[in-house]
Write a structure and sequence with these properties.
Helices cover about 30% and strands about 20% of the residues. The protein is α/β, with parallel strands linked by helices. The strands form 2 sheets. It has a 12-stranded parallel sheet with strand order 1-2-3-5-7-9-10-11-12-13-14-15. Helix 10 links the parallel strand 11 and strand 12. The longest helix is centred in the last third of the chain and has 21 residues. The chain is globular and about 100 Å long. About 15% of the residues have low confidence.
């Protein structure tokens, strides 16, 4: 019996099946379905990038969307060299977080008590050795040179968001020319940095913000070795010409007391031709703590310096205790008048002649019985009433409520006069939005309360809107 074997067919290279690139991209994207940029499955993306060169071209840009670097864990000059060598990956970065934890300078890890021989760890060779005369000063651990920050930012795309958290930032070197072009970014966030400022600080160029042109800038609790003094702020007119290069940001978010914001005000504030939105948040602390008073004064200076260019303004009216959104301050009777005077004066909007959109956010005390503090709602009304007539187009009242529906009903009764006055006082007003972030009762119950309290005339005006969402249990 003869065995007839069929020869193996030969396929030319042009006939080898090829997966379309679009299908490869869909396969890779399906592994990240439902995940935002902070939740990417990087292990899967890294595995996909190792399949072949075609897969790598689709997986790597997604893998590098979110990059997090510790100042002490990896030299940033090496990271800069990597970005310069791979510009296609540099342009793929959307979120770059450069962080430094202050505890690493003080407390060693728990497992670092002894070495492998059971002996105490040796001191560094240069510990407690004074510098000789003429030796250059040693950089502070965790410091980040502004020129290095700028060089990294120049490699990224204009849609990138850079976050500097807990890092030490020195001044721009006096012997280094300032770059002529600014780094264009979508957002720059400076969270609890420490600025190394020479003495006296009010006579020194501190131009960190002058390096960037950003859509959104967040300044939160930045400190300086030599604090800037609010008393150095000039009381001149907001539009007074100053021979300085002003920082460029289209939106500025100020939270707490930030020394870099004071430095910007000392130099004349932000570029008023581009700045249109300002958000003034509360600091973490009780209302009458020194830190809170300083941040309120700074917020007022920021508002007055840019009042004639602000179109969108967000204000957090009532600070919280211990920084938790569910633990607002409960004012006593003795402090109510002081609270009313301070907030009504600091957040006076009479000079905001181009203001269009105003958002007021506050938290209600976590109590299920008793009346809410009317002082807070008097302050809300005073702030809105201080806006020039004919300016407001939208008003948003954002309430964080952790009590029950009865507390919501009492609060809405206090808000109704404010809503009626605003509708009557601003003919050009289009909408008033009451946004409720609730916990402890359902959406249907929230809607029932709102409909039962709001007068029919206000509801039928067509200008009142309601937004409501549930506060996550982890908040």
């Amino acid at each position: 019996m003869k065995c007839r074997l069929r020869p193996t067919p030969f396929y030319p290279p042009t006939m080898i099946p090829i997966v379309p690139p679009e299908l490869i991209n869909l396969i890779i994207e399906s592994t990240q379905s439902g995940l935002d940029i902070l939740q990417l499955d990087k292990e899967t993306l890294a595995a996909c990038s190792l399949v072949c060169s075609t897969w790598r071209s689709f997986a790597q840009p997604q893998l590098f969307q979110d990059v997090r670097l510790g100042v002490l864990s990896r030299p940033l000059d090496q990271f800069l060299a990597f970005l310069e060598a791979t510009p296609h990956l540099a342009k793929a970065i959307r979120l770059l977080n450069i962080w430094h934890l202050e505890e690493t300078l003080v407390d060693p890890p728990a497992h670092a008590g002894n070495n492998v021989n059971g002996e105490a760890p040796a001191e560094p060779a240069d510990a407690d050795v004074p510098l000789a005369a003429g030796d250059p000063p040693q950089p502070t651990p965790g410091s980040l040179c502004p020129s290095l920050i700028y060089s990294i930012a120049m490699q990224l795309s204009k849609e990138a968001h850079i976050t500097l958290e807990g890092v030490v930032i020195p001044c721009w070197p006096r012997d280094t020319p300032f770059p002529p072009a600014r780094a264009r970014l979508s957002r720059l966030s400076l969270l609890r940095p420490l600025y190394e400022t020479p003495r006296p600080p009010h006579t020194v160029r501190f131009d960190l913000l002058g390096l960037f042109d950003v859509d959104s800038l967040l300044l939160r609790d930045g400190r300086a070795e030599t604090p800037f003094d609010l008393e150095f702020l000039s009381p001149t007119e907001p539009d007074a010409p100053l021979p300085v290069t002003r920082p460029i940001a289209r939106r500025v978010e100020l939270t707490g007391f930030d020394e870099l914001a004071i430095s910007a005000l000392l130099r004349g504030g932000f570029d008023r031709e581009r700045l249109t939105a300002v958000s003034l948040g509360s600091c973490q602390g009780t209302f009458f703590s020194p830190g809170t008073h300083e941040s309120l004064v700074l917020a007022g200076r920021m508002l007055r310096a840019h009042s004639r260019c602000i179109r969108d303004l967000d204000i957090a009216v009532l600070p919280t205790t211990s920084g938790h959104p569910a633990e607002p301050v409960r004012l006593g009777a003795a402090h109510s008048e002081v609270f009313r005077l301070i907030y009504s004066n600091i957040f006076n909007l009479s000079t905001c002649t181009v203001l269009e959109n105003l958002t007021l956010a506050w938290s209600a005390p976590n109590h299920h019985s008793g009346e809410p503090d009317p002082t807070v709602y008097e302050v809300l009304g005073a702030i809105v009433a201080s806006a020039p007539p004919g300016t407001l187009r939208t008003l948003k009242l954002s309430l964080l409520l952790t009590a029950g529906p009865d507390a919501l009903a009492r609060i809405m009764r206090l808000l109704v006069p404010l809503i009626e006055t605003t509708v009557a006082g601003f003919p050009g007003l289009k909408t008033i939005t009451v946004a409720i972030t609730r916990r402890g009762f359902t959406e249907d119950r929230c809607v029932d309360v709102l409909q039962s309290v709001v007068p029919m005339g206000v509801a039928e005006s067509g200008k009142l809107r309601f937004e409501h969402r549930e506060l996550p249990s982890s908040s």
